[in-house]
Write a structure and sequence with these properties.
There is one protein chain. The protein has about 120 residues and is an all-alpha fold. It contains four helices and no strands. The chain has helices at about 5-25, 30-50, 55-85, 95-119.
Length: about 120
């Protein structure tokens, strides 16, 4: 059985979110947004993993679409942290890169799955 790349990528994203959240809490004493960030970013991986056990193709698409929504929310929190200089001086690049890759992959999976559902 081949490796599931999206599961690997979204797990790596969750790990980066936990690390960034911890760093924000320790270095910046920022607790509210960092917890929101961690919640939404870890939900991406949880939903992609849950989608692997979907009951139908439609259920799979729904779960992956929820993962995409969580990714968009995560992007919002990252933009807010940057706009308020809370991640100034903190290396958030690994998470930003991982988030961008995951969004592209999930978007492609949802689009392809919707096309395949119609066929």
């Amino acid at each position: 059985m081949s490796e599931n790349i999206i599961l690997k990528k979204t797990f790596a994203l969750a790990v980066e979110a936990v690390k960034l959240s911890r760093e924000l809490q320790i270095e910046k004493k920022e607790f509210v947004i960092s917890k929101q960030l961690m919640r939404s970013a870890t939900s991406i991986g949880a939903m992609t993993r849950e989608a692997q056990q979907a009951e139908s193709k439609a259920d799979f698409i729904h779960k992956m679409s929820v993962a995409l929504k969580e990714a968009n929310e995560t992007e919002y929190w990252m933009e807010l942290l940057a706009a308020t200089d809370l991640i100034d001086g903190i290396n958030a690049e690994p998470m930003v890169s991982s988030l961008k890759e995951s969004v592209k992959m999930i978007t492609a999976i949802v689009k392809t799955s919707k096309i395949n559902l119609k066929n």
